[in-house]
Specification:
Blueprint (H helix, E strand, L loop, with lengths): L6 H11 L4 H9 L3 H16 L1 H21 L18 H13 L8 H6 L4 H53 L5 E4 L2 E4 L3 H11 L12 H8 L9 H4 L2 H4 L2 E7 L3 H6 L3 H10 L10 H4 L4 H25 L8 H22 L2 H5 L2 H22 L4 H7 L6 H6 L3 H16 L1 H22 L5 H4 L7 H4 L10 H14 L3 H8 L7 H41 L4 H14 L3 E7 L1 H13 L2
Antiparallel strand pairs: 1-2, 3-4
Helix pairs in contact: 1-22, 3-7, 3-22, 4-5, 4-7, 7-27, 7-29, 9-28, 15-16, 16-18, 18-19, 21-27, 22-25, 22-27, 25-27, 27-29
Amino acid sequence: WPTSSSSSSSTAALASASLPMCAYVRFALAAMIPIVRRSIASFWRVLKQITKVGTFLVGAIVIFAWIAAVLFNGPDATQALPINTGFESFGDSLYTLFLGVTTANLPDCLVPSVQYSRVYLAFWAPFLILTVCIFMQVILATVYNEYQDEMSSKVQVQFSNRTKGIDQTFSAIKASGQHSKKRGKQEPVVTYESFVELVNRLGSFIALGVDQDFLKLVFAALDDDGNGILVASEFYDMCDVLQYRFVVTKRDSIVLLALGDSKGGKFLKRLMNNSQEEPNMGYQFRFNDSPFDYIMNTILALNVLWMIFESYYDLNDLPELGWFLPVDCLFAFAYLFEVTLKLCTWSWREYWQTTDNRFDFITTFILVGAVIATLAFDIPKDVLRYLNILRLLRVVKALNNIDVFQKTVATVVSMLSTCTDVLLMNVLVMYLWGSVGVQLFGGELYAARFGDKAKDLGYFSAHFEVFNFNDIPMSFVTLFCFMITGWVDNVAVACMALAEEWSLFWFVSVFFMLSFYLASVLLAFNVFIAFSIDVYCKLQEQAEEDKGDLEKNLDEIREELAGKGLCLHMEASSELRKSRVYKGLFEE
C-alpha cells in the first residue's frame, strides 16, 4: 500500500475535511424524495444479498495473496524486473490481486513472474478463473437477480392496485339501467358524458396529455366496437390512452392550398410526396422516399465528400483555393431551398412536429447567416468551414430512411427513459462519494504535497492531475472513470499515499476507494448494464409485436382526420412506455 511521511498533515487534512457538512445535508434532503428513498432501499437490499458470495471472493483473494507472498519471495528478486514486483509484502500482495480481480492491472501483473518462468501460470490461471470468471460473474448474477425479484414484486403490486382502481371507478360511473350485449351477455357501460366528467376530475389532480378538444377522439380510441359506449374491457385502456400526447395540425401549407390542382400544385405534390397510397397523413408518412428526398440525400452525400476534401487542405496546412467559399455558399443555400420547399408543401405546425425538421431549420439558418456575415463583413472564412461540421449531423437524419436505423434509435431512446431509476441509483452513488471525496482529497493531489515521493507515483508521471476531487464536477469525472473501468490505480494510489500506512486517514482513504468500488462498480453499474440489456431485448420484442386494439383505433382516427386535411400526431408518455416494458419484464 502506498504511504507518505507526513502523518501530521494528513491528520490535519482529516480534521479539516470533517468541518463542511453542506454536501451531506444536501444529500440527506435529497434522500427524502420518494424515488431517491426507493433507490436507496433497493441498493441496501441488493447489498445484503451479495454478502455470502462476496465473502468467498474476499477469502480467495486473501488465500492467494498469502500464497503469492510466499511463492514469489523465494526466487531471485535482483533481476531487472524482480519476480516479486507487487508482492513485496502481504499487504502489497492483497492490493495487487485485488487489482487483478478488477482487471485494472491485467496482464501487467503477470509479466514479472511469467517472464521468470511459465510454471507460475499454474498460480495465475486458477486465481483468475476462480475470481474473475466465476465469483465476479456470480456476484453480477446475484445482484441482478435480487433487483429483478424486487422489481417484479413492485410491478405486480402496481398493476394489481391499478386494476382495482379501474374496477372501482367503472362501478362508480357506469350508467344505471343501460347495458350492452357482448359475448352473449349484458354488460354495464360508461357513457361519453360520464367519461368527460371523470377526465375533468382527474385533471384537477394530475397533468393529462389530453385537453377538452380531444376528448371525443380519446373516447373513440377506447371504443373498440364504435357503438358510442364503453364496456369494462374497453374502459381498462383508459389509463393508457390518457397518457398519450395528442396534437392535431393542418396538413397543407397556404402555398399548396393556393396552388390547388394547378400544374404547379400537382408538380409540387409529385416532387414532395412519395408513392404511398391515400390517405395523405402528413410529412412523416409522405416525405421519405419522395423524389425531393432522394435529391437532398444526393446533395448531402456530395456535401460530405466536399467536407472531406476541405479537411484534407486544412489538416495539411495547404492554402485555400479561391473557389472554396462559393461552393460552401452553394451548399448552404441548397439547404435553405429545402426548408423553403417543405414549408411551401406543409403547414408550419406540421413541419415543426418532427425533430429532424427542427434541426434542419436551426442549422440551415445558422449556416446561411454565417455565409451572409462572411460575404458582408470581415469574418474569417474558417468560421464558415467549422460551422459546416453541423452538416455532418445531417448524415444521421439521412439514416432515418433506413428502417433498421429508425427502430434501433427508437429502442435506445425508450431504453434510456425506462432505465431512469437505475440511472438515478448510479448518479446518487457518484454524488455521495463525490461529496465525501471533495472533503477528503480536495486540493491535496499536487506534487509538492508528496515531496520526494511524487516522482514514484504514476499519478504525476502519467499526468493524471486532471483527475482530482477539487470540486463536485471533477469528482464526478474522476469517479465516472472508476465506474466504467473498474479501477483507476494511479488515482487510488495517490489518494491513499496522502497518509502513512495504518494511520487513521489511510484507513479512511482505503475505505473510501473500496466502498465506492462495491457500491458503484459491483452494484449500481452492474444492475444498469444487466437491466439495460433486458430492457433493450424486451423493446425489440414489443416493436415486432402486432398492434393492439388501442393502436388500431388510433390509426383509424388518424386516417379519418387525414381525409379532412388534418394530421394526428400522438406520442406515449415516458411513464406509459416504462410501465409497458416493466409489465413485459416482471409481471407474471
